[in-house]
Amino acid sequence: MASAHDFFLLGDHEAAKQLVTSALHAEGFTVTTTPSGGLLAKRGSAARTFWLGAMAGKNFQVSFLVDFMVDQQGRLVARLNRNMMSGALKGGAIGAAKTDTAFQETANAIAAAAHPAGILGGSISQN
């Protein structure tokens, strides 16, 4: 299971950040800005997840961080991060699997938005 996924984005950095934000919104996330200029993406219900764990179904809460940095080539790097323990703590093995699935779907959605826009310069998963 990957704990992070890096997207190397070409062109205007602010436009690329907006594209990432839009992709997260399209996946049903509420997106807020972090103090470091990254993004916090959350979806689902904390209360239902607390009480029902993995049985919260579509209301199972997941949250991911997106950190932005610039590489040596001047490309914007959007790093999608997840907490490896949070899904397991919320819903055991099923919760961990739900979080992994949501992470993979979210990474795919960001790539699917960036590729046709012509700004995806590459991507890699990290453990």
Notes on the protein architecture:
By secondary structure, this protein is of the alpha+beta class. It has helices spanning 13-26, 46-52, 86-114; strands at residues 4-9, 30-33, 39-43, 62-70, 76-81, 120-126. The protein has a six-stranded antiparallel β-sheet with strand order 2-3-4-5-1-6, covered by helices on one side. β2 (30-33) and β3 form a beta hairpin. α1 (13-26) packs across α3. 29% of the residues are buried. The model has no long low-confidence stretch (mean pLDDT 87).
Report the sheet-strand fraction. 25-35%
Q: Distance N terminus to C terminus?
A: 7 Å
**Given the C-alpha coordinates, what overall shape results?**
elongated
**Helix/strand structural class:** alpha+beta
Question: How many strand units?
Answer: 6
Describe the strand arrangement of the main beta sheet, using strand numbers.
Answer: 2-3-4-5-1-6
The count of helical stretches stands at 3
The main pleated sheet reads as:
6 strands, antiparallel
Provide the helix percentage. Answer: 25-40%
Q: Spell the H/E element sequence.
A: EHEEHEEHE
- Radius of gyration from CA coordinates: 15 Å
Unreliable parts: none
Overall pLDDT level? 87
Helix and strand topology:
Layout: E1 4-9, H1 13-26, E2 30-33, E3 39-43, H2 46-52, E4 62-70, E5 76-81, H3 86-114, E6 120-126
Antiparallel strand pairs: 1-5, 1-6, 2-3, 3-4, 4-5
Helix pairs in contact: 1-3
Summarize the structure.
The protein has 3 helices and 6 strands. The protein has helices at residues 13-26, 46-52, 86-114, and strands spanning 4-9, 30-33, 39-43, 62-70, 76-81, 120-126.
